[in-house]
Design brief:
The chain is an alpha+beta fold. It folds into four domains: 49 residues, no CATH class; 44 residues, no CATH class; 82 residues, first zn-finger domain of poly(adp-ribose) polymerase-1 (2-Layer Sandwich), CATH 3.30.1740.10; 92 residues, first zn-finger domain of poly(adp-ribose) polymerase-1, CATH 3.30.1740.10. The protein is built from eleven helices and eight strands. The protein has a three-stranded antiparallel β-sheet with strand order 3-4-5. A three-stranded antiparallel β-sheet has the order 6-7-8, with no helix packed on it. It is extended, with a radius of gyration of 34 Å. It starts with 10 loop residues before the first strand and ends with a helix. The relative contact order is 0.06.
Length: 313
């Protein structure tokens, strides 16, 4: 171009947008990377008389860049997942015959939790069986930082605690769920019975704890007891009789163990306890364990109403 212009524009008689008039176009200077949005935009030509025609090519370039980044992230994640899988796990997932003999002992660095990371559910059970199993443990707390999963209170240092081992749902390795020993007996009776029977260092009240745990195994609903409270309204209904629980009446909250934590699951009348749980011999002990805020008068009231309900039934 003639004159003393600060920059020069190269005009090319090419077309990049279908249906555009055969006018000149400006080539844009851009990086050499073919997936760079400016590089994509450089292949598009626009009319210098209509600057709005540049909007659509730039939007297409932006969408192309986002798609490229998402595709790269997807391929990287897939590659990482494939590399995390042990070769024996992959072969077990592909070959039904070798699935029975799959093992992780050939390469210890892969870890024994790889079976839980495997995307093929057919090989999970086989490799889980071949993995070394760490039993639940009863030990003295090494610090005072852990909290009980059942009562949410801190477990004091050097206090006996129960540790339940389970596969980590959020990553590789195992997760340890810590309980006060008495809380584990109430809320995880089957695990507690096995741990108490195999414990090297028996707690002083082992027999009473075993009796309570075995009672919980015999009547599984006892593990749902989560304390006692006065009903704040008359809207809640009993899970046993399906009748409304009157306001200010005693009710027993229930919870369920799922995915490493307890979640609320309604409540029942105190008078329905015998029919719902099947046994109320140590119900007051369980209630006091998970409702330490109850006063002695509250406990006496609970025991009296429970005795009347049991006597009437």
């Amino acid at each position: 171009m003639g004159g003393s212009s600060m920059f020069e524009v190269e005009v090319e008689p090419t077309l990049a947008i279908p249906g555009s008039p055969p006018t000149g176009s400006a080539s844009l200077n851009s990086p050499e990377h073919p997936e760079h949005p400016e590089s994509i935009a450089s292949t598009m030509t626009v009319s210098p008389r209509d600057p709005n025609r540049l909007r659509k090519p730039l939007m297409a370039a932006a969408f192309r860049m986002v798609w490229v980044q998402c595709e790269r992230a997807r391929r990287t994640a897939k590659k990482k997942q494939r590399h995390r899988m042990h070769p024996s796990v992959v072969s077990a997932a592909r070959d039904p015959v070798s699935r029975a003999s799959a093992t992780l002992e050939d390469e210890p660095r892969w870890g024994r939790a790889i079976a839980y990371k495997c995307s093929d559910p057919r090989s999970t059970q086989v490799n889980r069986a071949n993995s070394p199993v760490v039993d639940d443990v009863i030990e003295h707390a090494s610090s005072g930082r852990a909290k009980c999963r059942a009562c949410a209170q801190t477990i004091a240092k050097d206090e006996l605690r129960f540790g339940e081992r389970a596969p980590n749902p959020f990553g590789e390795g195992e997760a340890s769920y810590w309980f006060h020993l008495a809380c584990a007996v109430c809320k995880r009776p089957e695990k507690a019975v096995a741990a108490l029977e195999a414990a090297v260092e028996a707690p002083p009240d082992r027999e009473s704890l075993l009796a309570m745990a075995r009672r919980g195994v015999e009547h599984p609903r006892l593990a749902r007891v989560a304390g006692a409270e006065r009903s704040p309204s008359a809207r809640a209904k009993c899970r046993h009789c399906r009748e409304a629980i009157p306001k200010d009446a005693w009710r027993l909250p229930l919870d369920w163990w799922e995915d490493g934590r307890f979640g609320p699951s309604g409540s029942i009348h105190l008078s329905c306890a015998a029919a719902y749980f099947g046994n109320t011999e140590d119900l007051i002990v369980r209630i006091r364990r998970f409702a330490p805020e109850l006063s002695e008068s509250d406990v006496s009231s609970l025991a009296g109403e429970l005795g009347q309900a049991n006597g009437s039934t």
